[in-house]
Amino acid sequence: MKRFNYKAKEVKTGKIVKGSIQADSERMAGKLLLDQGYMPEKIVDENAEGFLAKARSKVTTKDRIIFTRQFATLIGAGLPLSNSLQTVLDQTASKPMKAVIEDLLASVEAGKSLSDACKKHPEVFNNVYQSLVAAGEMSGTLDVSLERLANQQEKDAAMLSKIRSAMVYPGIILLVIIAVLVFMMVAVVPQVKSLYADMGEELPGLTAFLVQLVDFFAKFWWAVVIVIGLIIWGFLNFRKTTTGIKTFATMKLNVPVFKKMFQRLYMSRFARTMEMLLSAGVSMLDAMGISAKAASNVVVEEQIMIAADKVKSGKALSESLKGRDYMLPLVPQMASIGEESGKIDEMLGKAATVYENELDELIANISTMVEPVLMVVMAALIGVVIGGTLLPIYSLVSSVG
């Protein structure tokens, strides 16, 4: 038996109560609360606390994709909602995902809609997921909505995987640069200092600077560690502030080499999400609000919401998007064609496909674009170290000879 902490609403009075209950599983705890006249809002295993426990209890993207795909197949085959959830639950190996499905099943069996049940787990099911599920429930096409979600999640996961893979090689080169510099400074520079001291010669200016730098790090390494720690701490905290979030969002859209990649990533997300939501019957304004967040960049989100205000006042989507900062021209162009043909969702889907293909090419070439820059940086830094170590040694040997 496990002990679960819960937050629930008393059915008769609507009063919110908190407490703990013993049960074999989260689902059983939910059923016990229902039997006692409470509508559970949150049930948490009291042992599932701390950073490591939270990390272990996190639902991965792969878990969510597998759940969505299996669930869509069962709903499409005509199984009732509860039976479909129970079947997926029996087939799921991931413990974190099992816990989420158990809660979904308990909520559905208590009379809640699936979209409302999903809202209890925003860290697993985002706004796009919740909206498509709600639209599918209303239109009777839940299996179609889930299939779209599974397809899009797989595309997003594949794209992010490609971006991470493309950054591996430049990252390795950067580590090599740092390792070479550290080796030269620690192993070579002190030897040069000793050699000049033995010969009674005065160190050249660049060599003297490097020696002083090494001596400083040797004496005050603890201060350097503290300063670096404070910088990292400040950086991480700044990133969480409103100003920091906007600053880094703007940097992504303007940083050389990477800006084309990020701009196409955000546009493909926006256009693809709009396609899914509009084809599922979500209203234009709601679709724009959800798609703006789905882009995952506050600067792009602000521009889309400005366009949404124009749509709300009666302007066409294509006119509202045209001329917006960081809004690539193909999106309003395809929206205009869609408005004329009555297939705006389809046209936005085609725009998304174009940007996804361009993004694939950019990701494939990212290492090729970054490598020369890193090589120049590495050559310059190592050149400085060599100029302050090996060349003075050569000059010293030549003068003795």
Total strand segments: 3
**CATH superfamily of the largest domain, please?**
Type II secretion system (T2SS), domain F
> What is the rounded Rg?
29 Å
N-end to C-end Cα span: 85 Å
Give the low-pLDDT segments.
none
Instruction: Write down the CATH topology of the largest domain.
Output: Receptor-associated Protein
Question: Could you characterize what this model shows?
Answer:
The protein has 401 residues and is mostly helical. The chain has three domains: 2-55, Ubiquitin-like (UB roll) (Roll), CATH 3.10.20; 56-154, Type II secretion system (T2SS), domain F (Receptor-associated Protein); 162-401, Up-down Bundle (Receptor-associated Protein), CATH 1.20.81.30. Helices cover 76% and strands 6% of the residues. It has 17 helices and three strands. The protein has helices at 26-35, 51-56, 61-76, 81-91, 95-109, 114-119, 127-139, 142-199, 205-219, 221-240, 242-254, 259-279, 284-294, 298-312, 317-321, 330-341, 344-400, and strands at 2-10, 16-23, 38-45. It has a three-stranded antiparallel β-sheet with strand order 2-1-3, with helices on one face. A hairpin with a 5-residue loop joins β1 and β2 (16-23). The longest helix is centred in the middle third of the chain and has 58 residues, at 142-199. It is extended. The N and C termini lie far apart (85 Å). The relative contact order is 0.08. The model has no long low-confidence stretch (mean pLDDT 83).
List keywords for this structure.
401 residues; mainly alpha; Ubiquitin-like (UB roll); Receptor-associated Protein; 3 domains; three-stranded antiparallel sheet; 17 helices; 3 strands; extended
